[in-house]
Amino acid sequence: MQILQQQIAALQVIVHQQHVSAKRQRVLNIALLSVLVAGGFIAAVRPVGDATFDTITCKGWKVVDADAQTRIVACTKADGSVTVGWLDQDGKLRINAGTFADGEAALTFADKNEKKRITAFIDGEGSGTMSWADKRGVVRIGAGIDANGNVLLPTFDFIPLAKP
Questions:
Q1: CATH number of 60-152
Q2: 131, 139 in Cβ contact below 8 A?
Q3: Dihedral angle at the C-alpha atoms of 112, 128, 83, 94, nearest 10 degrees?
Q4: What was the pLDDT predicted at 5?
C-alpha cells in the first residue's frame, strides 16, 4: 500500500508540473500574440517615408514642417478661384498666388509684418500691373499696361529717403 501511495504522490507531482507548465504556455502564447498584434498595428500606422503618386485629387492641402507648423496651403473655392500661400516660421503669410473666377490672377509678396510690398496683377480684361509698397503697405511705385496696350505709369506722392 505504501508503494501505491508513493506512486499516487509521484503522479500528483507530475500532474501539478504539467498544470503549471500549461499555465506558463498559455501566458507565453498570450504574450506572443500581443507582440504580433502590436507589431502589426505599428507597421500599419508608422510613416513609411516619401510617397509617389500619379494623381492626387483634393480641394485643398497643406505642408507642415518638422514642428507641425503649416508652411504652405493651397485651396480651391466654389467660385472657381484657387490660391496658394507660403507662410514663414511664425505662421505669417509671406507669398500668396491666386487665380480668380473673373479671370484675374495675382502674386503678392509680404514682409515679416504681413504688409504687401510687391504685387503683380492681371485682370480679366488683360490689363497687367506691378506695384511696390513701403513698409506701411502704401503703394509708392506702380507700372502697368492696359488691355489695349497703353502704358500706365501712375504718380504717387513722393517721400524722400531719410539720410543716414
A1: 3.90.930.1
A2: yes
A3: -10
A4: 74
Could you tell me if 80 and 97 are in contact, meaning their C-beta atoms sit under 8 angstroms apart?
A: no
Model confidence at 11, pLDDT cuts 50, 70, 90, reads: low
The rounded distance, in Å, linking the Cα atoms of 153 and 144 is: 7
Dist. CA 71–CA 94, nearest whole Å:
10
Distances (CA, A) of 150 to 104, 124, 143, 162: 19, 16, 11, 34
Q: Where are the domains of the chain?
A: 1-50, 60-152
pTM: predicted TM-score of the whole model, two decimal places: 0.62
Would you list the DSSP string of the chain? -HHHHHHHHHHHHHHHHHHHHHHHHHHHHHHHHHHHHHHHHHHHHS--S----S----SEEEEE-TT--EEEEEEE-TTS-EEEEEE-TTS-EEEEEEE-TTS-EEEEEE-TT--EEEEEEE-TTS-EEEEEE-TTS-EEEEEEE-TTS-EE-------PPPP-
